[in-house]
Request: fold
Amino acid sequence: FGTNITSFETLFEEGQELPIWIIGTEQSLLPDGPAKVLSTTNSTSNTTGSVEKFNCTVTDYVDSTQPHQGLIIQPGERYDALIDFANMDNHEVYLINTGPDEPFKTFELVNDGNRAPFETLGQLMKFNVSLEEDMDDMTTAPEELCFDNNPGGVAKFDQVDVDTNRSVFLKEEVTDTPDLGPFAAVLDNIDGNPEEGKGWAKPITENVQLNHVEEWAIINLSADSHPIHLHQVKFQIVKRCVTNDVNCTEGKGVLGYERGWKDIAIAYPDVNSEGEPVVDGNVTVGFTTTIRMKFDILGIYVWHCHIISHEDNEMMRPLCVYDPMNNDTLNNCCHTDLVYNMTLWDEEGEVQCIDLNASCVSNNRESSCVKDSKCLWDQTSLGCLDYDIDIRGPCARIEKKKECKKKTDGRCEWNNQNKVCGSATTAFSALTSKVDGAEDPIEMQSSSGRVGLNISTMLIWVFMVMWHQ
Reply:
């Protein structure tokens, strides 16, 4: 409808409002019974009450805190709704959008100045109500409906069921040009640099073990709200709070009609009265939406913002579900159609994708020290070293004696016995071993901070040479 947010109200006769009864979300019916959505414009109370029934407790939710705040729905969200037209004979009823005619932040910032005009984007649908005489009404009044106390009959997960907690963030990249707006939106995990974010083609960072329950804290650092959608799973919205709220309890910020299983959650921002992100010192505070779900299908999927101009401009990332007992599924998490050529290692329950296009990867795992058989694991530095660069170094690449002294500021020395140019500060002359079939002897360069072999290895070689002589 030209906006990023729709707030539905049903109006008739000079602004009088009919309640919208929500019975289901994208993935299930609501637990217990429907949620009643009514804005504070015409309701006498914005409190929550409950009605005891013979087999369930139906909560009469009036979640609105702002004038004309109705059913808030963003792109991709779906709700099953009931509207009772029983007393509307010969009336015209309009389904209207009371959201803003601009990117949505929070409803506190929606007013008559930016609300979608009723004559255009504010008017979505018109009902001409006519009741036929002698028509038997076989329906049940919405307030009398009772459902399973588990949404759709599927029990939600408790905190004790969570195997992994994961924090991710979303942000918009802006220019210095006033009023130009963001030029891209990105996602990333919280271990990354919040000032950068990751585009679609970066290595997968959300690798999830099969049948694990995960809780994701989605931190919105931008100035706008974003409908975040995860493929493959249904999830429950656990809570919404300002990110630095240490007293954020489960259920806080979750609207009554969001109690069912969902696959899209609105990630709201933390903004000031001017619509700009709240900053504490030099740090953007952000607003956190927490979701909880179980990943029970193997494969590569995506999570993204459901605003099409956002997901098409970098606000989409892959996620991979793997079985730790199946190497094929482990490899699938990295061998994707992305621009990176990667492999995956899994030790002590850790999973990481390695970019093989880079030089020898520096990390704390010997098993991932691979690159065209040129990489060596050094036990002393616990690092993965490149044979040509870190071990042999620049001196070993000089083949002529007369050029040896001229290179690397006089640090190179010619060895007549082995006919190689090596570092003048190391005992390289004793090292004649080949590594992985390499044609040149190893050079040690401890003076430059490069450690190719540990000291015990060097002493063994010196001893062997002395013994042989």
